[in-house]
């Protein structure tokens, strides 16, 4: 018996879906809470003056990026409807 298959409507036959958590980028970006997203912090120097220094927590970017836990940095996930095959039995 031949089993008819059709293209999976969820992934359009690709077998993979873009990770919605990271929008396919594979990483999630968070605002740095040390500098509140500004990229710099104020530090006292030897003369007791506040000086603006680059935030070491985020390297001055104001953002921290982490590998997306949902897709493990891949940016996409196997389609659960078709198990990554792109086809489902008709
Ligand atoms: Zn920072
Ligand atoms: Zn992801
Ligand atoms: Zn699918």
In words, what does this structure look like?
With 90 residues, the chain is mainly beta. It folds into 2 domains: 1-24 and 70-90, no CATH class; 27-67, no CATH class. 0% of the residues lie in helices and 36% in strands. It has no helices and 8 strands. Strands 1-8 form a two-stranded antiparallel sheet. Strands 2-7 form a two-stranded antiparallel sheet. A hairpin with a 5-residue loop joins β4 (40-44) and β5. The chain is rod-shaped, with a radius of gyration of 23 Å. The model has no long low-confidence stretch (mean pLDDT 95). Bound molecules: zinc ion (3 copies). Residues 19, 21-22, 26, 68, 70-71, 75 line the site of one zinc ion.
Primary descriptors:
single chain, 90 residues, mainly beta, two-stranded antiparallel ribbon, 0% helix, rod-shaped, binds zinc ion, HSP_DnaJ_Cys-rich_dom_sf, HSP_DnaJ_Cys-rich_dom, CR-type domain-containing protein
Strand content: 35-45%
Gyration radius, rounded: 23 Å
Provide the domain count: 2
Q: Could you give the order of strands across the largest sheet?
A: 1-8
Give the biggest beta sheet. Answer: 2 strands, antiparallel
Report the mean per-residue pLDDT as an integer: 95
Helix content: under 10%
| SSE arrangement, N to C | EEEEEEEE
| Amino-to-carboxy terminus distance | 13 Å
List low-confidence stretches: none
How many helices? The count is: 0
Helices and strands: which structural class? mainly beta
Morphology call: rod-shaped
DSSP strand tally: 8
Bound compounds, each kind once, are: zinc ion
Protein name: CR-type domain-containing protein
Pfam family, one: DnaJ_CXXCXGXG
């Amino acid at each position: 018996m031949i089993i008819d298959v059709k293209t999976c409507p969820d992934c359009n036959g690709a077998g993979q879906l873009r990770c919605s958590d990271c929008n396919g980028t594979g990483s999630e970006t968070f605002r740095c809470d040390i500098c509140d997203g500004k990229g710099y912090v104020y530090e006292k120097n030897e003369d007791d003056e506040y000086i603006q220094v680059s935030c070491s927590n985020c390297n001055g970017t104001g953002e921290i990026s982490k590998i997306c836990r949902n897709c493990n940095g891949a940016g996409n996930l196997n389609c659960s409807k078709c198990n990554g095959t792109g086809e489902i039995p008709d």
